[in-house]
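[job 0412] stage=complex_fold ligand=NDP status=START
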Amino acid sequence: MTAQIIDGKAIAEQIRREVGEGVAELLAAGKPKPGLATVLVGERPDSAQYVRTKQKTCAELGMESFGYHLEATATQEEVESLVRQLNADPAVNGILVQLPLPSHLDEESVLRQISLEKDVDGFHPINIGRLAQKGRDPLFVPCTPMGCIVILKKMGVKLEGANAVVLGRSNIVGMPVALLLVRENATVTICHSRSQDLPGIVRRADVLIAAVGRARMVKGDWVKPGAVVIDVGINQIEDPTHPKGRRMVGDVDFDQVKEVAGAITPVPGGVGPMTIALLMQNTLRAAKIAQGLV
Ligand code: NDP
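[job 0412] stage=complex_fold status=DONE, emitting structure tokens
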């Protein structure tokens, strides 16, 4: 069997188009541009690149972006007082604190300062808590995990009653995606670095989400024939045949798994583009919340 290759770029493009139209409608109604504030602390090149891409996408979709860059030595109070200032700024609808923060900072305390209505990354402890509770709804859902679910739904994958396996339990991807799958009535197994017999567990999955940050860890003989495989991993490997000497791969051995799975997301071009598209969707929603429109 050769898997259907899921075009995350195309799905993300459709969402971006819809968000652009939503922004245009707001502007036509005389409302201000939705605004996203990004807070970058320190000099991590990957974080700086993510922030630049988010700002560029805001501009493409007609939104305002406000970039704040603090030094790696910024104190807890400096970061938190910036967040409070952004909470009070009516031009700012969404606040994104780029993670990870430098290790001397208390991440949870910073995230707790973000006003719930501006928590477009969905990482405020109250939003995450609501995600975990039956009958409660968060105001915002984290973008990468939601990206996985949107892809599965667009592909028409039946989640109710499905055996879903999530590799990884991070606050950013693994745990929230597992919570979302439970909300979709899947039966969810969460694996991590202490799990025993990963291949055996993964082989039972109708739906597999891989978010471990280990290049090509999931092999073809781990996967149940016909399973749907969502690869969140972003890993750089050396490749002398590539112009840059390295290239990006996922947590799944794509070449092997595509011969077994029913459908699979590629890396790049799978989950990655969804993350920013859904951040933009959340920012538009935050602007509508601020305008009393939702
Ligand atoms: P973390 O490092 O925070 O978490 C990794 C998780 O994988 C942990 O729960 C860890 O277990 C588990 N793990 C690590 N090694 C193994 C192993 N050998 N066997 C089983 N479990 C293991 O990573 P993130 O969740 O932040 O990111 C995961 C991947 O997704 C990365 O490649 C990252 O770059 C990518 N990513 C992609 C995004 C996108 O937009 N597409 C956005 C965010 C992340 P334990 O808890 O026991 O340590």
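The mean pLDDT is 97.
[job 0412] exit 0
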